[in-house]
Write a structure and sequence with these properties.
By secondary structure, the chain is mainly alpha-helical. It has seven helices and no strands.
Length: about 180
């Protein structure tokens, strides 16, 4: 939930911040944000699948969670249209890694239980709650304090997600680390 709470509002907020300053064409800039992210996400997901088959899912989840706070900090402190490249490259990396790792991890944890689909549905529901709350949180902060503080807040939420992931990984049973 925390990953998506920190992530979901970043792209629309970033586009809004750049366009509101009159630094980019709204349609073209929005299209570029999506294109850059997708061009990165697809090859990352393909490589992540191969990596996970040999090494497991925890490293992929950790890397995805590390990309998000960095993404928010770049958006907060590099207020130019050129920040689109690192911000959306990091989005593509995180999305590609998470898209492979999370379903794989759920399947490996629930393997043999007969509840993999229910487990994945529960995880996706919690993710959806975080994603739904993200624009409200970011919008409220941006309205009261500006875009920079909103990106910093999203980065802090993302960093909390990373900390919780690392704590969960450390508490995990050694036989289930893949």
């Amino acid at each position: 939930m925390l990953f998506h709470l920190g992530n979901a509002a970043m792209l629309p907020l970033f586009g809004q911040a750049v366009v509101s300053r009159g630094e980019a064409d709204p349609g073209a800039f929005t299209a570029l944000t999506v294109i850059v992210s997708q061009l990165v996400m697809i090859p990352v997901a393909l490589l992540a699948g191969r990596y996970a088959a040999r090494h497991g899912y925890w490293t992929l989840l950790t890397a995805a969670s590390m990309a998000l706070p960095l993404r928010g900090l770049i958006a907060a402190f590099w207020a130019t249209p050129w920040a689109l490249l690192p911000v959306q490259i990091l989005d593509g990396i995180a999305a590609g890694l998470l898209g492979v790792a999370l379903p794989g991890l759920v399947a490996s944890i629930l393997r043999g239980s007969g509840h993999v689909n229910a487990g994945l549905g529960a995880v996706m529901t919690v993710q959806g709650i975080g994603a739904a709350l993200s624009p409200a949180l970011a919008g409220w902060i941006a309205h009261r304090h500006g875009y920079g503080p909103a990106f910093v807040a999203l980065s802090l939420v993302s960093a909390l997600a990373l900390v919780m992931l690392l704590l969960a990984k450390g508490a995990e049973h050694p036989r289930r680390r893949k």
